Amino acid sequence: MKRVAVLGATGSIGASALDVIARHPQRFAVTALSANRNVDALVALCAAHTPAFAVIADAARESELRTRLAAAKLPTRALSGDAGLREAATGDADIVIAAIVGAAGLDSTLAAARAGKRLLLANKEAVVMAGPLLLQALRAGGGELIPIDSEHNAIFQCLPGGRPDLQRAGVRRIVLTASGGPFRGRTRAQLANVTPDQACAHPNWVMGRKISVDSATLMNKGLEVIEAHWLFGARADRIEVVVHPQSIVHSLVEYADGSTLAQLGNPDMRTALAHALAYPERIESAVARLDLSQVGALQFQAPDRATFACLDLAYRALAAGGTAPAILNAANEIAVAAFLAGTLPFLAIAEVIAATLDAMPAEPVDALDGLIYADLTARQHARRIMRRAHNC
Length: 392
Ligand code: NAD
Ligand code: MG
What we know:
Layout: E1 2-7, H1 12-22, E2 28-35, H2 39-49, E3 53-56, H3 62-71, E4 77-80, H4 81-90, E5 95-98, H5 106-114, E6 118-121, H6 124-141, E7 144-147, H7 150-158, E8 171-178, H8 188-191, H9 196-200, H10 209-217, H11 219-232, E9 239-243, E10 249-255, E11 260-264, H12 270-278, H13 292-295, H14 310-320, H15 324-340, H16 348-359, H17 368-390
Parallel strand pairs: 1-2, 1-5, 2-3, 3-4, 5-6, 6-7, 8-9
Antiparallel strand pairs: 8-10, 10-11
Helix pairs in contact: 1-12, 2-3, 4-5, 5-6, 6-11, 6-15, 10-15, 11-14, 14-15, 15-16, 15-17, 16-17
This protein binds nicotinamide-adenine-dinucleotide and magnesium ion.
Magnesium ion is lined by residues 149-151, 224.
């Protein structure tokens, strides 16, 4: 029996993870669940999964959580804040699912890595911000990381032994597929007035709002290029992006002998979660079988890098190295939040990120403090740029 902590349990990945876990009560038990502020949703999940711990990130709500758990006669202990998340990530769990969105997930992700857990990483922002520190923490802890992001999970499945030396394994290129999001094929003029709801109406995946906007700008793919660089040790010029509107081929690995291996499946995150939970075994995920004759055609095309400028901004940050990816990520989080709040136009998201990168030269990264400082400073720059240029 494996004990599983689900950090970000009330989100889209959290729900998919708990769905897979609940289908295998002989294999998995939930030991900890976390949410940001929604006590109702967290208590409902505790009633369904009876974990030992429940963590509410907003410390002001810990006593409400405790009262509600007691009223529901649940054995679950209430914790809160970063310390609570750290305790859930390092306690008795065998597997930690890092499914908090954004930089807020970094601390608990690093803690789980250092504690030698099997880390199921969905929180791509953590690896974008702190790739080298996360790898260091994994080495120190002696645990293992299995990617949940569907593209990286696909690459993991197409590589021999998960994370080999790419040169020795004869890998020529990693090809990340991108759906292109809801605005694929549009011109800049057609993107000027798009709304948050239009940006979040993804054609193939149902996801949280932040990653949905990232998919619409192609920043999601940009973050994934940086994620692939750190997770697989691939140079930027060996990581390519191809648009594949059907989201059936989740990514590909091209080898020196001309073979290209791909992983296919219906677009449902439960496949990656089931794979990573049971690895190296295979278990049921309840994902519908892939019927290729129903799918009909699989299409591939080059991304429109001029209209969707965020993709190249990510390559630029990766090339600059050091703190640049953390700056990119922080500016993106601020700009996307403003877009979702209705105060920043869609096309300005890339402008704010570019201006923030311009304002902050990359510094070498040797410790977490420097990264956190870069993250906070980039957020301030991005806010100032938005106030000046967009009056928000
Ligand atoms: P979501 O918005 O649906 O859920 C986010 C979760 O994080 C919630 O449980 C929320 O309570 C928690 N959270 C938010 N802010 C927090 C904070 N400040 N402190 C602590 N907890 C906080 O997001 P999601 O779509 O489930 O995505 C989660 C992560 O997985 C993201 O990093 C995303 O990029 C990645 N991811 C998601 C998908 C997907 O299909 N949804 C696919 C690949 C990768
Ligand atoms: Mg992805």
